[in-house]
Recover the amino acids of this structure.
């Protein structure tokens, strides 16, 4: 009798016990063990879906920054129908969605990696015919477990905000609009914010799936796949009295009759409470590089930039940003002694998922270090997202233009020890006010005339 050469890899990796049996037991037992062992939904796949996918793929899926997962993987019927695409999404690494290379495992908050053995098991489940198995044999806990990611009743992931701001009136995104990026003011409602306060959390609540992404003056970037902003304890941003809050909306939708929408995006803030201590006043820099032209058809165009670090800082997070031609991105640090270290490697950049990579423990970068940023672009026709491979492309705001940004959030390492409600140093307040003033001066705000809503007659409501 011949020993079968094919062994499902999951047997080898998930059941160390089986390996010892295989080694010790006569060959005879092999075949029956394998036949019974075609993975089934309830016995094998469900626990893996639960741990790796259900946070998004559940009944009433959560809205992750404007999009939600199209099916529940807690439900056998749905999982079966989607089985071929599940295999595809796993093999291509499209799911679970995460951009940072495996080498960064354990470094960033909210990382999403699937273990090889779990991935192999799901693929084996699909290949084995996506069998149902015995619902009663499933671990009872699993079937009834709540995945714990249901949107809280307040409608905000950060909990009931201390301050909510929104548009003065809804933005009308007309039928002809395909790609539009107005900057819209979000005035603070009268009497809701009279004194400077320290932001601990901020969240954007996109009006709907037509919102592709939002860049905001005070809340960073709101995009598919990005949760709320929660600063680590003791890290904060000062929202002065009379702030100038704006959002640069990026609307993207189909065109034609009936495609118009009314957008009511909102933003919410949670503040530190009296007596809390702020040690790290968060600063951000977009680190854009604008001077390049990607030649038409180029499959792998590289852009490089550097940034000198002048004082000791803790790097809190990194947010690479490109558009449809974005292919890969890397942040490296060169220490004063010349040694280099890769801080972030995104080998397969996907503009649909603009992740912010936030350190579990902010990273110390000494004064005298240099950041080296590299972006790679695919402007060839081999890139299915490429709007036009026959065009040279430069930096610009439209999605059909490109960008090479490398946002960082950081703070100087010397703790400030500011007690909320007690100390508000003049320099901190002035800096915050200055930034508001710069925003006021720089912003070109969308002016919505009354006529914009002439279409909104009583009949149409
Ligand atoms: C962070 C939330 C999230 C997690 C975790 C996640 N997904 Fe998804 N998934 C989505 C969203 C949102 C979509 C729809 C948008 C899209 O297709 O880009 C999607 C789409 C899919 C699709 C359809 C892809 C297609 O080609 O249309 C498949 C299949 C899928 N997910 C499988 C999985 C599997 C399997 C896992 C776990 C290993 C997983 N997902 C984990 C959010 C998630």
């Amino acid at each position: 009798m011949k020993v079968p050469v094919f062994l499902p890899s999951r047997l080898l990796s998930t059941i160390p016990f089986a390996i010892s049996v295989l080694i010790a037991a006569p060959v005879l037992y092999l075949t029956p063990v394998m036949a019974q062992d075609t993975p089934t939904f309830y016995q094998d796949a469900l626990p893996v879906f639960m741990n790796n996918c259900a946070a998004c793929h559940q009944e009433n899926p959560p809205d992750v920054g404007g999009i939600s997962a199209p099916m529940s993987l807690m439900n056998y019927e749905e999982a079966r129908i989607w089985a071929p695409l599940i295999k595809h999404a796993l093999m291509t690494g499209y799911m679970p969605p995460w951009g940072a290379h495996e080498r960064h495992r354990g470094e960033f908050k909210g990382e999403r990696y699937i273990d090889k053995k779990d991935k192999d098991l799901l693929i084996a489940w699909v290949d084995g015919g996506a069998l149902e198995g015995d619902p009663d044999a499933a671990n009872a806990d699993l079937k009834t477990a709540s995945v714990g990611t249901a949107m809280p009743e307040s409608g905000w992931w950060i909990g009931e905000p201390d301050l909510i701001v929104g548009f003065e009136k809804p933005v009308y995104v007309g039928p002809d609009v395909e790609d539009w990026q107005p900057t819209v003011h979000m005035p603070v409602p009268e009497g809701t914010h009279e004194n400077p306060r320290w932001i601990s959390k901020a969240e954007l609540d996109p009006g709907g799936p037509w919102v592709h992404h939002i860049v905001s003056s005070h809340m960073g970037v709101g995009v598919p796949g990005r949760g709320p902003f929660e600063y680590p304890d003791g890290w904060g941003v000062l929202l002065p009295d009379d702030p100038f809050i704006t959002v640069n909306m990026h609307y993207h939708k189909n065109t034609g009759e009936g495609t118009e929408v009314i957008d009511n995006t909102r933003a919410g803030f949670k503040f530190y409470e009296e007596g809390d201590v702020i040690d790290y006043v968060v600063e951000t820099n977009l680190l854009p590089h604008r001077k390049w032209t990607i030649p038409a058809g180029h499959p792998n165009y590289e852009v490089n930039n550097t940034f000198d670090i002048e004082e000791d800082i803790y790097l809190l997070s990194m947010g690479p940003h490109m558009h449809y031609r974005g292919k890969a991105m890397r942040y490296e640090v060169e220490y004063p002694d010349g040694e280099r270290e890769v801080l972030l490697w995104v080998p397969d950049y996907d503009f649909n998922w603009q992740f912010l990579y936030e350190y579990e423990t902010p990273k110390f970068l000494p004064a005298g270090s240099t950041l080296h940023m590299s972006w790679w672009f695919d402007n060839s026709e081999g890139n299915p997202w490429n709007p036009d491979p026959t065009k040279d492309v430069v930096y610009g705001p439209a999605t059909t233009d490109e960008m090479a940004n490398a946002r960082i959030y950081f703070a100087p390492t010397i703790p400030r020890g500011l007690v909320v409600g007690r100390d508000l140093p003049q320099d901190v307040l002035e800096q915050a006010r200055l930034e508001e003033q710069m925003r006021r001066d720089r912003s070109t705000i969308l002016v919505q005339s009354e006529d914009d809503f002439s279409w909104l007659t009583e009949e149409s409501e």
About this structure: Residues 38-144 form one domain. The CA atoms of residues 71 and 206 lie 21 Å apart. The chain has three domains: 38-144, 163-279+417-453, 284-412. Residues 1-34, 453-461 have pLDDT under 50 and may be disordered.
